[in-house]
């Protein structure tokens, strides 16, 4: 996908999803990772919405992101709280660590940023190989209905400097065969009523079926797969769930 999360996009992300804001996932992941042996890896860590509260809970979390702008926000959030975080620029297709992790987590559907099924399988295999024996992968998926939902109206935020930031989304492609949607995102900055900066970005997502993901996890070497709905561990997903979570481990 072309998702870059550059300057204005990163600022909007921080305003919309500030550190510690939970959709039920922060508490869920903290509970599931309690007592985890070994460090935890969070790919696509963003501005630290989940990573920072996990660090505050005493977990050793390592993160990477393709966007340096997002990592700068994450580093700043850690510094304000006196936390140290191992953060680096990397992508799903090229991250590499000598460490073997006790767990890897992908909250909030970040796995769906991967463009194709083939690339998704390769990333699952790379994650599997970065886990210690018995290490767990926990990832969230949005239901298909959420991915296909039409964009809403223009959204707006006011930052600490008084600038107004707006985000307008236009759906430009829905590929049912390849299970992807692509939108044009326009980020605008308004200062004293004047447009002072704009960014345009292509934003793509791929949806995964529940059984498709279960088979993908099994095909890449994972065992002990648990599928949960609505952040209720072990409860089978229902049609009205906003999130579906998969947990699996390396044998």
Automatic annotation (TrEMBL):
<dbReference type="InterPro" id="IPR029063">
    <property type="entry name" value="SAM-dependent_MTases_sf"/>
</dbReference>
<keyword id="KW-0808">Transferase</keyword>
<keyword id="KW-0489">Methyltransferase</keyword>
<dbReference type="GO" id="GO:0008168">
    <property type="term" value="F:methyltransferase activity"/>
</dbReference>
<protein>
    <submittedName>
        <fullName>Methyltransferase type 11</fullName>
    </submittedName>
</protein>
<dbReference type="Pfam" id="PF13649">
    <property type="entry name" value="Methyltransf_25"/>
</dbReference>
<dbReference type="InterPro" id="IPR041698">
    <property type="entry name" value="Methyltransf_25"/>
</dbReference>
<dbReference type="GO" id="GO:0032259">
    <property type="term" value="P:methylation"/>
</dbReference>
<feature type="domain" description="Methyltransferase">
    <location>
        <begin position="40"/>
        <end position="135"/>
    </location>
</feature>
């Amino acid at each position: 996908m072309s998702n870059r999360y550059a300057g204005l996009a990163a600022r909007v992300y921080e305003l919309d999803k500030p550190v510690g804001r939970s959709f039920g996932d922060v508490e869920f992941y903290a509970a599931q990772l309690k007592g985890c042996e070994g460090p935890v890896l969070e790919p696509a860590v963003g501005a630290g919405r989940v990573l920072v509260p996990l660090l505050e809970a005493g977990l050793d979390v390592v993160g990477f992101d393709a966007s340096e702008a997002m990592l700068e926000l994450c580093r700043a959030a850690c510094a304000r709280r006196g936390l140290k975080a191992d953060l680096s620029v990397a992508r799903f297709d090229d991250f590499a660590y000598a460490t073997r992790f006790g767990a890897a987590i992908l909250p909030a559907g970040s796995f769906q940023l991967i463009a194709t099924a083939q690339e998704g399988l390769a990333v699952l295999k790379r994650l599997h190989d970065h886990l210690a024996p018995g290490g767990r992968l926990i990832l969230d998926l949005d239901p298909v209905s959420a991915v296909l939902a039409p964009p809403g109206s223009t959204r707006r935020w006011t930052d600490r400097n008084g600038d107004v930031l707006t985000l307008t989304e236009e759906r430009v492609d829905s590929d049912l065969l390849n299970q992807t949607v692509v939108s044009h995102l326009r980020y605008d900055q308004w200062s004293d009523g004047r447009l002072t900066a704009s960014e345009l970005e292509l934003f793509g997502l791929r949806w995964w079926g529940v059984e498709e993901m279960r088979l993908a996890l099994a095909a890449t070497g994972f065992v002990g797969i648990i599928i949960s709905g609505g952040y209720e561990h072990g409860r089978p997903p229902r049609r009205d769930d906003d999130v579906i979570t998969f947990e699996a481990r390396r044998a």
